[in-house]
Amino acid sequence: MIRSLSFAALTAMLVPMLISAGPATGAADKKKAKEPVPTGRLDSLLPPAPRYLVPQSALAEVRNPRTIEEETGGRLGIALVDSKGALLLGFNRDERFALCSTFKAPLAAAVLMGADAGKFGLDGQISFGKDDILDHAPVVKQNRKRGRMTMSELAQAAVEVSDNSAANLLLPMLGGPEGLTAFARAHGDTVTRLDRNEPTLNENAEGDPRDTTSPAAIAGLMGRLIFRDMKADSATMLRGWMNASPTGDKRIKAGLPEGWTSGSKTGTCGTAYNDVALVKSPGGDEYILAVYLDRPTVDAKKAEAAIADAARAALDFVGRAQKSGLD
Asked: Are 252 and 308 in contact (CB under 8 A)?
């Protein structure tokens, strides 16, 4: 038996995993619906919520994120955004979580877009000394004798291997942490904020809003950047860096259903485990999936497995909904 279910109905059945981006619309209303006009606010990019035709049997097979959260002993956040900016799925989607190194994805986008705008060149060299080299700086350490790297090399290192020194060297070119926050605001994200650089941004003090985001905000920001605001060549370059990163192999990538692919930017603060991924379905549809896990009581291996479980639950549902079609 197949029933037409709004996200509100699904929410009641699956706890708060599935949350609509707006009120459900009837058939007559949908014919009149127009594409939203961006106003600089993330919510202006959210179209009316679709109605999925989902088999009842499929709902029973989707894992409840509340169960995954309880198994970790921590706090889980999930958001899935499609290529048009619609927030499709969410669990604790608007709660704040520590950014950790996931800030390096919008950082790289800001560098690429700054170069496109003529503010600087990607081949421009940034010099550094021994005091600039942090513990986790594998690529910068390799260039210690050289003492300088291009902006493109630094951005690639920040995304692919999460090089902390590379990120710190790039931030002043954007106006520091405040400049990256302003960049997020300029692209519709009113939540994400960066206040410090590496490594102090990883403090993750309870109740401290500094250096935080929400799953919905970061997924929306990265979706808008990659799918809409970046020039095609720059978006392709960022996609390539995310695809080449091995840091998320045991997180979202490990939970991909058969035929799905992904590239991501992870973040780990010691008390937090995060992943923001560009995922692609077997049919070619693309999404941004953000999964954040704060203060789990399980070890790192189980925390990463929980992120994979959360990704699998979200993408399994979307895959089943796609097979059933849209009402």
From this structure: yes
